[in-house]
Amino acid sequence: MEGNRQYLDLTDIKLSALREETADHGQHPYAIVICCSDSRVIPEEIFSASIGDLFVIRVAGNVLDNHQLGSVEYAAAHLGVKLIVMLGHTNCGAVGAALSGETEGFIRYIVEDIQEAIGEEKDPLRASELNVLHGVKQLRKAFGAHPEIPDVEIDGAMYDIRTGKVRWLES
Ligand SMILES: [Zn+2]
User: Fold this and answer.
1) How many A from CA of 37 to the centre of ligand 1?
2) What is the pTM of this model?
3) 121: phi then psi, degrees, rounded to nearest 5
4) Distance between Cα 87 and ligand 1 center (Å)
5) How far apart are alpha carbons 121 and 139 in whole angstroms?
6) How far does residue 74's CA lie from ligand 1's centre (Å)?
7) Separation of 41 CA from ligand 1 center, angstroms?
8) Measured in angstroms, how far is the CA atom of residue 146 from the centroid of ligand 1?
9) Which of 8, 48, 54, 57 has its CA 20 to 30 A from that of 69?
């Protein structure tokens, strides 16, 4: 609550106008970002984005299942978003869990998806990149020729949690 109080105190006229505008007239985000839940990866911060700019789907290890795909489909088909970014990051704990073969509890569902994406790769950075590229492939398969989602661009990127830099991955 203290954090929210500070947020309200710091809200300037521009931001409150933006809140009202999007509350009254809906959202028109320019990109869908699928990224990890990691607290060091904050899409709105790292892309200097604000209210209404990004449609964000966060899940540990930025894996995709039907709930995530449904969220992407909603934003692309109903909000008209033309750019989908699968964003991985350095030092990803979920990728680390996949590399060490963690099989405990519900985490195993995430781990299994990442293991499928990374195959025999042992390098954590390269494994994270392969996980992103796997996600890009899944998204292109799901939405590349979707009748309700024409001309959508689907790309992968990596965020460096130390430098703050985002770089595109070739795919
Ligand atoms: Zn992560």
Assistant:
1) 6
2) 0.95
3) -60, 135
4) 10
5) 22
6) 24
7) 8
8) 29
9) 48
Rounded CA separation 15/5 (Å):
15
The CA–CA distances, whole Å, from 64 to 13, 92, 117 equal 38, 16, 11
> What is the whole-number distance in angstroms between the Cα of residue 25 and the centre of ligand 1?
34
pLDDT for position 170: 86
- pLDDT over 90 for what percent of the chain? 91
Q: Which residue has the tokens 């869990």?
A: 97
Per-residue pLDDT of the chain in tens (171 residues, 90 and over written 9): 999 999 999 888 999 999 999 999 999 999 999 999 999 999 999 999 999 999 999 999 999 999 999 999 999 999 999 999 999 999 999 999 999 998 889 999 999 999 999 999 999 999 999 999 999 999 999 998 888 898 999 999 999 999 999 999 987
